Each structure stands twice: as C-alpha cells, then as structure tokens.
Amino acid sequence: FGSGRESGVVLDCGHGVQSCCPVAGGYVPSASCAHELFAGLDVTKWVACTLPVEQSDMSTFVKEAVCAAGASQPGSTDLELPDGKKITVDESTIRCPEHALFIGTPERRSTDQLLLSVLSGAPESCDRSAVLVCGGSSNLSGFVDRLQQKVGDTHASMVTPGSGADRLVWRGGSMVSQLSTWVRMWVTRQEYYEHGDVSVSRRYAPT
C-alpha cells in the first residue's frame, strides 16, 4: 500500500530480519512468506569485526558511508569520521554486505535465495514480475543492483520506492490502519492507558 501497489512481492531488508512476502489483491498468504534472522545488524557486527578495536564503535557509520554489495569495489578508501579523524577502510570492510547478505551458509539463506524461494511458491494471483525492495538495509550501496544480478532478469525486476525506503512499511501500515475495515481493530489511547499491553493482545490474539 505504501508504494501504491496491491499485488506483487515485497522484500523487506531491515535491521534484525529480512522478510519476503507475496501480496495478491492486498492480501498476504502467510504460508508463502519467508524470513531470515540475518540482516542489517549482522552486517554492522561484521563490519565491527574487520575494524581496529578502537574504531569498532563507528561500525554503523562506516557501514552506511562506504560499505557496498557487488564485485566491482575499490581495494580501499579513505573516510573522515564524525570526530574529524581520517581512516583508511580496506576492501574486507567495504565488501561486508556482499559476504553477509549474498553468500548463504548451511544455516541460513542468502538474500537472493530467500527471494527466489518466495517467488517460486507465490500464488498465481500474485504479480511476480516485479519485486518491491524496501527496508533500511536496502539503502546500502549496490544492494538492489546486486540482488537483480543474483536473481536474474528472467525471474523478476527489482523496484524501489525511491526516497524513504526505510519508512515504507510504516507508511503502508498507517494507510491500512485508516481503512474502515480496520476501525474495529483499533486500540484507543484510553483502552491502552487503562489495561496496558493486555488490551493489544486481547484485540489481536484473543484466547
């Protein structure tokens, strides 16, 4: 909804989880969804392991500034930290997203493997020709192009929402919550103040 679509496949690469779901006519067949508990936070930890100990607390800044997915990355690059100190970031650090997200292991699927598994199992009513890629980790340099390269043009084309990819889920959720069919699911401020978390679980997971 946040991107103006009602059918397709959504790949959300966030902080702690990567999730992929087919959407058909605004509905999500949950049995066809998949996720991996390996995402942006793990890339940050990977970056921290490649930096000198005294620079490890700057791993998030380094990741967002110079790290990239894809094969054609520079051997090293210079980077000025927020405190004005200049460091040289080597190739092993720059390529952390490539190793962390696009090379699978026996324990977890890579991002492209996750997407392909959902594409192959998506219902016929779902438009599988385009994949909406969103989430903060999708903003990493080269991420979308590398994903397209790994998946191949014959399967689907990667589509991005432009600016605000990291807020697309919240924008779509806000739009859905305003639909008349969702009014009965609202938890009012008064209810929450009176009953706390119980009011939410009672509404969405009744026993």
Describe the 3D structure.
With 207 residues, this protein is of the alpha/beta class. It has 9 helices and 7 strands, in the order βββααββαααβαβααα. Strands 3-2-1-6-7 form a 5-stranded mixed beta sheet, covered by helices on one side. Strands 4-5 form a two-stranded antiparallel ribbon. Strand 4 (76-80) and strand 5 form a beta hairpin. Helix 1 (40-50) packs across helix 2 (59-66). The radius of gyration is 20 Å and the shape is globular. The mean pLDDT is 84.
Quick recap:
This protein is of the alpha/beta class and 207 residues long. Helix content is 36%, strand content 16%.
Strand order of the largest sheet: 3-2-1-6-7
The multimeric state of the shown protein is: single chain
Report the uncertain regions: none
Beta-sheet strand percentage?
Answer: 15-25%
H/E element order? EEEHHEEHHHEHEHHH
Distance between the termini: 30 Å
Round the mean pLDDT to the nearest integer and report it: 84
Radius of gyration over alpha carbons?
20 Å
Beta strands, count: 7
Q: What is the helical fraction, as a range of percent?
A: 25-40%
Structural class: alpha/beta
Tally of separate helices: 9
Q: Estimate the global geometry from the Cα principal axes.
A: globular
